[in-house]
# Entry
Amino acid sequence: MPKLFPVQEIGSLAKPKWRTKGLRQQLSSQDLSEAEEWATKLGIQDFHDRAKSIFKTGDDKMRVKAILELSTLYGLRLFEIAGVDNEGVGGEQQRVEMYEHVIKAVQGMNLLGHVHSFDNKYFNKGVAESKISRKHPIYVPEFLDVKKYAHRDVKVPITGPYTLVDWSFSGYYIQKQHASSPKTRRIEAKREFLLDIVEQVIRPEIRDLVDAGASWIQIDEPAVTTHPEPQEMELFVEAWNETVKGFNCKFSDHTCYPSEIGYKVLSEYAPKLDKCDQLALEFANRDTSRLGVDKDSREGYGDLKHFVDAGFSGEFGLGVAHVHDFTGNVSSGAGKSVGRDFIESPELVRDRLLFATRIVGDPAKIWANPDCGLRTRTWDVAFAKLANVTHGAELARETYQ
Amino acid sequence: MSPEIQLAGIHPRSERLIELTRSYERAKASWSQVEVQLGQETREVIKLQDSLGFKHFSDGSLDWQDQLRPVTRSLKGVESGTRYSRWFDTNTFYQKPIIVGKISAGDIDPKNFLRAELLTEKRGRKVTLPGPYTFSQLSENKHYKNYADLLFDIAIAELEIIRRLKNEGVTLFQLSEPCLVYQPYRESFRDHSEVEQALGAIRSLVREKPGDFLVQTYFGDAAPLLPDLLDLPVFGVGIDLFETDVSSLSEQEKTSKALVLGVVDSRESFVENPNWIAATARKFSEKVDARDLVFASNSDLKFVPQGIANQKLEALSKASELFEESR
# Structure
């Protein structure tokens, strides 16, 4: 019998200061003191040798490569020690962030500047200035480092084509449209831009990843639920099916922070997604912070039923840990609120998993994960959250043993 | 007289301010440093409006973290901070207001709404607020059994906010009501009885001085609703020309209201040509004979980088002159 409630990460971890600074300039031994502290916690035995080589090299490219490799190793070990079963790519340490990292590798696109996302978070938004193509591999160098160091299964998260297009300005693609209605021009531009991203950028990347040994690719598509109109959803399905066509690999979708009806709409189209073995979804964000397996206590997980009712038969990656700032009340036993963080207790994680199992019907179809990548939390907080997710999954597992 | 130009919500922050707020998050900059920069940039946004001939000045709302938050934080019966939701179909988020008790005005600090001290008294002052219908639609209601009660309580509480802001010299309020025309978060689009309720709540909110209000719709087609909107006792009504099917408007509609034309797209980086803006406005005015036209972006310009937002405002200003020359 496979392990019930395996734990996975979803994507990003915060970038340590030494990693960020080290990409721009030479590091001092003081800069690496934080890394040294974590090296002990994470059991990085050759830290001092690696640090020496980082200090010694006068070649910027070599230093950057060594720092990216080291931070990837740290991320992988953090996940392992927290008990995560699938350790992804070590917290996406080699990426700027999910959008910009890809856009920088696309010929024909230009980053215009930052726009507001939420609170004091922003993203650098790109525009298509001509027909697009892939300049160079996007995720493959990171995957090769991950392969060297990962002790457990690996999933490669990539940003999906629909989201890349939706978060970009259409520029070239909209200006070449001739329809008289601005709305029609926008829709036609989006389709052409999207299919070009799939064919010219994403499929070549997946081909390279699969050739390099990737066996599970998570396609992140947070933008899909923002356009619940049938025309847009059909476009998403068309792009997804075109993306995965012909590859021998496990694929999963990660979609988070939908509008109120976003998951209901996604659930109607999820069964049409070819080779989609798992949906990793965000629920903790909308759930209560009290224990219980009743419907009221677990109000955040109600949308799961839409997917079951619609006939999606794959696995679910269940968001059981919140990844953003939290300022609400926490009931006894459900965890603790520390500053802007909420550390869910193992018991709360357990209750979320058990409630979801009632809806899905089969515990073997449920993975435990944070709602999304943990990049907005410190490593201490990310570790505490993941350790409790792992422990909570163990408690849920005990129920079935 | 050439059409007035107005800001229609939150203006984008500069790269400098963005970097500073990020540093603040990482505890590498103090809040007072952020405030100094916020003040400087607010002055720059005001100066830009001055140079482009604006009649009503906004402060750009550069410190607003989302379109609802200052209102959310001013109300009793509303909690927030635990849940983020997507702002329509954009890649931006807002803290979702959770309605947990009867809504009423709480502690209203005008400083959370505008930097009055930086705005000249020689020009009108404009503030953009979420309309009561949109605020209610984008909240999670855990208290009210009757939706109309929720809607009207929000309107009553917002009226208190508006009274306080009038004391700060605000002369024009934009009530943003995108939910009247776009509801991607709902399974079924609102019916006409809901529209009646929404318009009723707006009427109750503007009753003390209707001439101080604009009702702005965006992200959806306002054409089917335009006759109802034009019946509102307000100074003007705004529509998104990138979504509104102008061809479906009945010929030669005449109105004593001002029409705010959302004629530059806040969701696209391409800066509209002033000739195209003027021609589009002319085509519109052949369909609708409005007392006044106002040129604006279709919604908050915060969805584009600041440099592009400023260019779009300059394009509006130029288009306003071209429009006037051709009249």
Observations:
- Residues 80 and 121 of chain B are 34 Å apart (CA to CA).
- The mean pLDDT of chain B is 94.
- Chain B touches chain A through 44 residues (CB under 8 Å).
- The two ends of chain B are 10 Å apart (CA to CA).
